[in-house]
């Protein structure tokens, strides 16, 4: 039996037992959280396996992609920490690793020499253009169980959840 199927069955059985022992358990919400975490973990493991041959992990990849997708190919470590959900120390490690491979460069902002600016290099752009397309088929296959309409609905619902929980998980967050 596939491992995830076994985990899904165990989640339902375990939540059922807890529900019988603790009155008022929000069963639906507990199941949603557990299933989201299980699914996200499985997708992340699969994704990191795809990144290994390129010498990247998820946080390195997300940082590189944020620079690649930014309008001018730049970002500050502080901005990238926020968007990649990383601590400054880890962002330093990520920037060092990407710079060592000539995927990004560091410079100082012209308006404030104290501010560091990270920029994707031409080699970094070529690297992304080469590594990304081979990942598309397995990504598409991961969601092949949904119709196009279901994917759109799922995206809309996940976005709605993310925006709803933002102030709950980060009371300082602004809208």
UniProtKB/TrEMBL annotation:
Q: Which PROSITE patterns does the record associate with it?
A: HTH_MARR_1, HTH_MARR_2
Q: Which InterPro entries match?
A: HTH_MarR-typ (IPR000835), MarR/SlyA-like (IPR039422), Tscrpt_reg_MarR-type_CS (IPR023187), WH-like_DNA-bd_sf (IPR036388), WH_DNA-bd_sf (IPR036390)
Q: Which UniProt keywords apply?
A: DNA-binding, Transcription, Transcription regulation
The record ties this protein, via Gene3D superfamilies, to: Winged helix-like DNA-binding domain superfamily/Winged helix DNA-binding domain
Checking Pfam families in the record gives: MarR_2
What residue stretches are annotated with the HTH marR-type domain? 29-163
Protein name, entry field:
MarR family transcriptional regulator
């Amino acid at each position: 039996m596939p491992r995830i199927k076994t985990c899904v069955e165990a989640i339902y059985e375990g939540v059922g037992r807890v529900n019988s022992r603790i009155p008022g358990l929000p069963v639906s919400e507990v199941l949603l959280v557990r299933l989201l975490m299980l699914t996200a973990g499985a997708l992340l493991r699969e994704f990191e396996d795809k990144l290994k041959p390129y010498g990247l992990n998820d946080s390195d990849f997300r940082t590189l992609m944020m620079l690649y997708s930014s309008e001018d190919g730049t970002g500050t470590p502080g901005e990238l920490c926020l968007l990649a959900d990383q601590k400054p120390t880890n962002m330093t490690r990520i920037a060092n690793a990407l710079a060592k491979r000539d995927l990004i460069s560091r410079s100082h902002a012209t308006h404030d020499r104290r501010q560091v600016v990270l920029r994707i290099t031409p080699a970094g752009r070529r690297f992304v253009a080469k590594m990304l397309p081979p990942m598309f088929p397995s990504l598409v296959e991961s969601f092949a169980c949904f119709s196009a309409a279901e994917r759109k609905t799922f995206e809309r619902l996940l976005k709605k959840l993310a925006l709803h929980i933002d102030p709950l998980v980060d009371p300082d967050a602004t809208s």
